[in-house]
Amino acid sequence: MDLRGALRRTAMTRPAVLAVTLPGATELRLEAEAEVRRRGWPVVDAPAAADLLVVCGDPASDDTPWLDGIERSMPEPALRIVAGESGQLADALDTARRDLIDKAATRRAAEVAEVAHVADVSDEPGGHEHGDHEGHGDGHDHTMGEVAGLPMAERGDDRDELRLDRLHVPIGPASSDWPAGLVLRLTLQGDVVQGVEVDHLPLPPSPRLPFWDEPWLRAAHGDEVSRGSAVRRRCAAHLDSAGRLLAVVGWDDVAARCRRLRDEVLSGASRESIGGDLRRTVRRVERSRPLRWSIAGLGELPADRARAAGVSGPALAADGDAHDRLLKWLHEVERGLEGLDDARPLAPDDRTGPRGRLDGPQPPSRALLDILPELLTGAEFACARIIVASLDPDLDELALAPVSGAAHA
Amino acid sequence: MPDEVIFWVLALVAVAAGVMVFRFDSMARATYALLTSLLCVGGEVLLLGLDYLGVVIVLMMTIEMAIMAVFMVMYMMNPAGLMPMTMVHNKKGAAAICAAVFAVLAAGVLLAPWPSRRGRPSADPTMDLGLSLMGPQMLTMMALGLALFATIVATVVLATRRGRYDRFGDDLKARTPDDAVRGGTGR
Amino acid sequence: MSLELFLLLAAALFSIGLFGALTQQSIVMLMMGLELMLGGVIVGAAAVWHYIAPAAADGQVLVVLAVTVMAVEMVVGFAVVTALFRSREVDMTDMAAELKE
Amino acid sequence: MPDAAPLWATVVLPVALAVAAVVAAGFDAMLSGSAERGPAGSVREAGLRALAPLREALRLLVQRPRRTTAADRLLGRLGVVLVPVAAVLAGAVLPWGFRAVSDPSVGIVWFNAMEALAWAAVWLAGWGPNSALSLVGGYRFLAQGLAYELPHMFAITTAALGAESLRVGDVVAAQDGLWFVVWMPAAFVVYLLSALAMSFWGPFEHPVSRDAAGGAAAELAGVDRLVFLGGRWLLLVVTAGFSVPLFLGGGHGPLLPGWAWTLVKTVAVLALLVAGRRALPVLRMERYMEVAWMVLVPLTLLQALFVAVVVLNR
Lengths: 409, 187, 101, 314
Fold this sequence. Notes:
The complex is a heterotetramer. Chain A is of the alpha+beta class.
């Protein structure tokens, strides 16, 4: 075996993974994250850096174009696998690695692929061209329209009363640390969000209940669910959200700890084994003055406004900004620590899921989505990402028909 | 001999990049062509034995052009130059004037009876410059300082539309300024 | 290398800059022309210092002056463009002239 | 006293910087690994984790480069290559013990000028691919530059002031007895902050942070990505290493020879930065800018004033 071939093979023994989650596949995402982490494969956040695209969930035919787009914008050797069912992921990853190694070893002479898209691929071409804008008066004979097949930016008023270029940038559904399936069509001027259109991938009717709300919904349907498992689910949901927010804020270390704790809570670790670690992590976040300094004041949502918008759950109880919501999550997690192993059955009329009341006229995440435009407009791009993460709507809930008992709610 | 080569390379690159500034369609490229040209100017100054000034020119021009690129992209049409377009007026007249200016300057340079070199550069020209600015040229230094300060004030006034009444209310009593973006000192 | 060569380079840069300053419609581009002209001045001043009067620091002071002028000119230019742009969405000299009418 | 370094030092310098960068990145990967997967169970496991940066480099070498539509490839490439080049050029005045590859009379200004090239480089790398998110990343670095550069300049000027020379060798020589960090603590801290900011790493990685899908690096693949992100580590090593001659007495120290002291101190500073990174989220410039201008600039000015008074009265 020649040296170059051997090096190519070695290079692909740990391919970089870009995981994309489709709505309704939360469980698969958690499984994929845990498996990839166990193997120590690097996780990346842009197609350009990835070798392996892992799609969690069953792609509908509508999803094909944008998934293809992501795959095309990955540098060779690139591979896409679909993890449609739980339990098969380890095998799928093994196969993918073998294929990638073969692909890398039999690489032909380098031909450079041209990709037409940016890091975030949506299902329609977004105007990500920072090019020309509308005519400036007369005397300049140039035509507007498209360049290289990309639409040109136009001008509009902005926050600072300068008429600058508007860019239409779709964010999601493939962004990392992003609610699965959410698509925000942003109108950016510079990196200030001037307009937001909330959209999402099609939500296929699924027999599966939304993962994070499952215990309460099952109890409502009359199944026997222990309180402990409901508490575990809530803690894991909050740890997941907190991990996501901390990752967006850029505190990777604590984000990773939250995610590890989340997996341990879900896998049934006892209170004694994780309690200390969990409390330490919560204290660490609580005491971090730089964190407070960094995200305080972002996405202010006073309780009265939240209530008016129909928000329930931690976002309402936090009664404040992104930092308050983060602490609310973590405190609920800490409180839940007591009840992790509670074997008593969950009361069927307990309908308070991790994101709010499930017996309201609409799922709690719907309200979170509805207040997004109001909170995001005028924020800078980075702040907008933090605000979205601090609300962390769960789009799985949208497919949820109003729970029985909602009629009289 | 190496000095000779360096001089010619820098000179040719400086002039070529200078020409390209006005030939590129792309604003980013034009800005960076100007940067190239000015970096070469810095190099020539280094070559003449003015270490401090040469490096300072490199430092300042890099930062200046990096910031200029922002304004270019912000305000200019067609910043990426994806659509060929011209935005010039009176090209022929200007070319004639510039050719004439160059001819006159060149004639002056070549014909003038330049005085011969008097004195020798001191061991540390940077020290010279400092002593001069803090001594005989103190007035220049102070004028520069004042000019820079006036510039800062004037440009902020020109460029911003918000004054303190907008930020702290009509009676200036608001504890936190009403800004679009919250700052970091928690006022 | 001689004084004349350096001064010719300075003259060339100055003339190119002048051409840009005269032809460009955009204020920002016009400023780039001015920067080039000042670049020529810097080369000239440094060359004169080196070849004629290296003992005195006057040539160096002139370079400092030119560098400062470059910075000031650029900053003022941007501020003016921003102000004009805010009020009229104008970033070109011709259009600024039309505003007078 | 500073001697001229032999010619081979020019060749050794980039290699030494690269080795230091790999070691620092390996240490970082070990710490991240224990956050993600729990503490390493064995020495072998820890070693494997520390090798992650090398594995990553190999992986990027195998990846085929890609380009985006209507990209400005010339400028993008230039920006990518400029990052490591600026780092190595700045490293040329870095004294190893008491010798640097070059010790010009204005070494400190040279160092500053070379790191300013990173401004241009990151913006170019963000501009090149013609993609919104990478341009956002490029602009973020310009804002960052405006925030950190002024306090940073005052901080290194303070060290030059203390030694009454812009030559790095003189600054080291002036610390024969007392290290500058003892009487210029504010300048030292500000310098460390700006070292991180300059190499857009750690708490200052906003220009390439995850929330913008990698920001300025969002569209870089294969070798381009390796050069850009590797150059970032080089910058970190060089800027961290430069704090040793500026504030920590360079090669001065008891018993050990000068080169060993430089090594020990550089490793200590790097370890401090890499470990300290764990305690901080990313600092966004809209917040940091105000702190930099309202707090750090006056602070460094006062520090410089204090040093100036001491120097005048000595």
